[in-house]
From TrEMBL:
Name recorded for this polypeptide: Thiamine diphosphokinase
Key words, A-Z: ATP-binding, Kinase, Nucleotide-binding, Transferase
EC number: 2.7.6.2
GO molecular function term, any single one: thiamine binding
Residue span, Thiamin pyrophosphokinase thiamin-binding domain: 142-205
Lineage: Bacteria, Pseudomonadati, Pseudomonadota, Alphaproteobacteria, Hyphomicrobiales
Entry-linked SUPFAM superfamilies: Thiamin pyrophosphokinase, catalytic domain, Thiamin pyrophosphokinase, substrate-binding domain
Gene Ontology biological process terms from the UniProt entry: thiamine diphosphate biosynthetic process; thiamine metabolic process
Pfam families: TPK_B1_binding, TPK_catalytic
SMART domains, per the entry: TPK_B1_binding (SM00983)
Top EC group: transferase
UniProt keyword annotation of Oxidoreductase present: no
Gene that encodes it: thiN
Length: 212
């Protein structure tokens, strides 16, 4: 890694693919409450475990008793995931991989992770959200290039109107397009080369299912 990358374990769905394992290799890890359930499957030893521990498994609590904890009351005003992100940033994180950020039984949490990732990117902290089989890459004003395998399916979902949107290296390209909030124009596209995306104004997220 060329910058300090921290991995955050969250409570959503996760499949431990080879691509995911490569993305988090040799990164310090912080677990957020029930996200600790992913640690063993990924072969990880978190340096910190945070949360109110209302969703942590009793077996994980016993198995990872040696991991330092930050315990919060259930009535706190932040999610366990946001607390974990803040702790990583306090420790010098310049990039984040949020494992288990997508899917699961809490759509509200998954949406929060996506919007939080966009806010962090505006603060110059890149974020990858991943469940292994699906990845999320926040988009704000700027230019991006991605290393997805050809044939990977992807969509761009707008969090606001997106101005000056360009997409190249895909089955359907766009050039300086305005994407309205709520539009389905950019759903169900396909990677055909080196995917590049640029945006002049707005916020959104690129969701992709990398071909294995």
């Amino acid at each position: 890694m060329t910058m300090t990358t921290y991995t955050i374990l969250l409570g959503g769905d996760l499949v431990p693919t080879l691509r995911l394992k490569a993305q988090i290799a040799d990164t310090p890890v912080i677990a957020a409450d029930g996200g600790m359930r992913h640690a063993a499957r990924l072969g990880l030893e978190p340096l910190l475990w945070v949360g109110d521990f209302d969703s942590a498994d009793a077996q994980d609590i016993a198995a990872y008793a040696r991991v330092p904890r930050l315990v919060f009351k259930p009535g706190k005003d932040k999610t366990d995931g946001e607390i974990a992100v803040q702790e990583a940033c306090k420790r010098g994180a310049k990039r984040l991989v949020l494992c288990g950020a997508l899917g699961g039984g809490r759509t509200d949490h998954a949406l929060l992770h996506m919007t939080l990732a966009a806010v962090l990117l505006e603060k110059k902290i890149p974020v990858l959200l991943t469940g292994g089989k699906e990845e999320g890459w926040p988009l704000v004003a700027g230019s991006y290039e991605f290393d997805f395998p050809q044939g990977s399916l992807f969509s761009i979902v707008a969090f606001s109107a997106m101005e000056g949107l360009r997409i190249h290296g895909a089955r359907w390209t766009l050039d300086h397009t305005t994407l309205a909030f709520g539009s389905s124009l950019t759903l169900s596209n396909e990677v055909t080369g080196r995917l590049s995306v640029s945006l002049e104004q707005g916020r959104g997220i690129l969701l992709v299912q990398p071909v294995v």
